[in-house]
Amino acid sequence: MQVTELSAEGLKRQFKIVVPAGDLSAKVDERLAELAKTAQMPGFRQGKVPVGLLKKQYGQALFGEALEAAVNSSTAKAIEDRGLKPALQPRVDLKTLEEGKDVEFEVVIEVLPEIGKLDFSEVELERLKAAVPEKDVEDAISRIAKANREQKPVDPPRPAQKGDAIKLDFVGSVDGTEFPGGAAQDYTLELGSGSFIPGFEDQLIGAEVGKTVDVKVTFPAEYGAPELAGKDAVFKCTIKEIQEFVDKPADDELAKKNNFENLDAMRKAVADRISQDYAQVSRTMIKRQLLDKLADTHKFEVPEGLVEGEFNAIWQRIEEAKKSGQKVDDDEEKMRKDYRDIAERRVRLGLLLADVGRSNSIDVTPEELNQAVMREAMRYPGQERQVLEFYGKNAELKERLRAPIFEEKTVDFILELAKVNEKSVTPEELLKAAREAEEAEDEDSPKKDEPKE
């Protein structure tokens, strides 16, 4: 094998590789000899088929196998001998291909950039920290109590009021014709919940058990069923029962009903959950800060092939958005430039985080990967077993969960080294800052803070 370097510009390397014809012939002969030991053909005993006959029938296929193996092995050796770290699969271009002659091909490789030693001790960040007000906890407890309230038939009987739950049968029609999905029996509806078409629930206030009410409404223009959108409809409703809600007090009994030892334990759990929610908002913001600073202060060259792949993935989403009717910028040339900048940023951050992770032996353990699978399963209540089995049978899909875990661990590692100043704020100030940060980021949508590992 003869390797000649043709060019080395930036991160691109180009080589010419020549594989002697004799090497390929030897590989073909070796495979023919192996095949001859077990080959069967009409008129010959097993293992007694002449090699010449086998070569006539299988020679072309065996030459293709030998060629592919030679290209792969010689390319890998050229890369290994020069200590290169490819960013993508090498691109191979066959120049001469004729059986019995030397094979010549060119290989173009994009290599990973040398990022160098990184010092994060000078990176200064601000972490917003919000304490949980007692009022937020009490409001949450009140919501739990409301969710646990009981229903009882009104006694003595009276017309329905806002806030009541009524059981009814109804049949909907447009222009006198019933439509699919417009009827139900023994349906329970809370008046004032806003769960039905605007105006529907209001017309049932004052209804009485055993009586029929014609509810006249107009379906919204953007209604999900096109055949009903904007149409006038009449629902014939028969009231079967009126119930009122009985509030439950916030006490130990309520706590036990929700699997807590007592009210204090439930209050603490609620406070912890709210605190975790605030901490997650704060974490998202400081991570965004960190990625912005890393992107602004580390300007190394990135492989064009990776940028192109990332840009194509972004642009595909833009095209899908157009097809679904979403409004996008009319200036396509500007959009392409902006999204290519975002693609380059993502790739650069991904390479930087990957380098930090490798350099500091950051890894994702099997336990962490299994926990991620479990979290995915919990997103589908009632289908957890099927989700777990699905991931168990799809190793590649399971591996996709590794990248975000690796990224979070690497970000945590950098945050430990950076100068992080904590600032106490109210929950309102924290959420306002988070909204403003998201609004600013939406201008660069798709989200720019999604580095590619």
For the structure shown, list the relevant keywords.
5-stranded antiparallel β-sheet, Chitinase A, domain 3, 12 helices, Alpha-Beta Plaits, 46% helix, 453 residues, alpha+beta, Trigger factor, domain 2
Which series of helices and strands comes N to C?
A: EEHHEEEHEEEEEHHHHHHHHEH
Tell me the fraction of residues in β-strands, as a range.
Answer: 15-25%
Number of strands: 11
Q: What's the Cα radius of gyration?
A: 34 Å
What is the percent of helical residues?
40-55%
> What is the level 1 CATH name of the largest domain?
Mainly Alpha
CATH topology of the largest domain: Trigger factor, domain 2
- pLDDT < 50 stretches: none
Major sheet: 5 strands, antiparallel
Alpha-carbon distance between the termini? Answer: 34 Å
Principal-axis shape? elongated
Number of domains as seen in the coordinates? 3
Annotation field: number of helices:
12
GO cellular component, one term: cytoplasm
EC number: 5.2.1.8
Subcellular location: Cytoplasm
Keywords: Cell cycle, Cell division, Chaperone, Cytoplasm, Isomerase, Rotamase
